[in-house]
Amino acid sequence: MRLSSIGLLTLSLAMGVVAVVGTRTYIASQAQPAAAPTVAKAPAVPTRKVVVAADDIAFGTALTDDRLRVADWATEDIPSGTFDTMKAFGGPDPRFARVNITAGEPLLAAKVTLPGVRPTLSSVLTGNNRAVTIRVDDVLGVAGLVAPGDRVDVLLTQSYGDSKQPSVDVLLQNVKVLALNQDAAGAAGGKRDLRTVTLEVAPPMAQKLALAGKVGTLSLSLRSGDGGDEAAERFTLADLLGREANEPPAASEPDRAVNNELARALGAAVGDLAGSLPGAAAALPASLSTNSGLDGAPKGNRTIEIYHGTNKSIHKVPG
What's the predicted TM-score (pTM) here? Predict the structure, then answer.
């Protein structure tokens, strides 16, 4: 075999090997999954241990270990007055909740008492406010569904003026409920048998409530705590009926028929009495004798005045 032929054969084999190796390498590289992009890790947020409520805690509850737990809180979000360990929170005697505390909420020194000290209602009053108790029932107390911490308006129902017409005034608005009966925490869920409600008010408002309880009936209107006070006007019976206060109610057709029949009967009775008793006409008042047709007055001019309360109606007597 010639040397040139051997060289060409060797070159061809070498190129074939290179092609095969290159093809296998390419196919293997395509089959491998793409490398996942690198995600930068968020910097760790520094945390601290704080004592929190393990479940919802009502005002006046003893804060024993089973009602508490220790949780990690972001350092920058921790409010002042927290406790970092159960040992720091506890003492020889338990603390008590001064307000309602929700599950997971940090225990703050301002919201709990000192060890062994029970809370009083005066401890939850704001500034110079007063706690005033008013008497209600299930109807006047929003069907017994009001709870401590709710906001209510206080309504006064009374009678005023010479006619003693009933009226309703909005006495106080957006008042905080402190306690029901003698319970500042409120029974869990459902309707309550209300007898008294204690409200937090400013000193002048306490005087208002004390006086209003003597002159009328107080009732509550439950409201959202988000809204502000609104202008309120007195609502009277005339407003309810849609007429003027001194306007008498219109008589219905049956009422008018009854009044006319009564007037005829009374007129006949007066005439019979005057005819059967000598000198009766002279003994009657001048206005009655003139109107009734006695002493020569025409009978067609006789009238009867009928009073319904303070409302007067005049009816002619036929005959």
Answer: 0.49
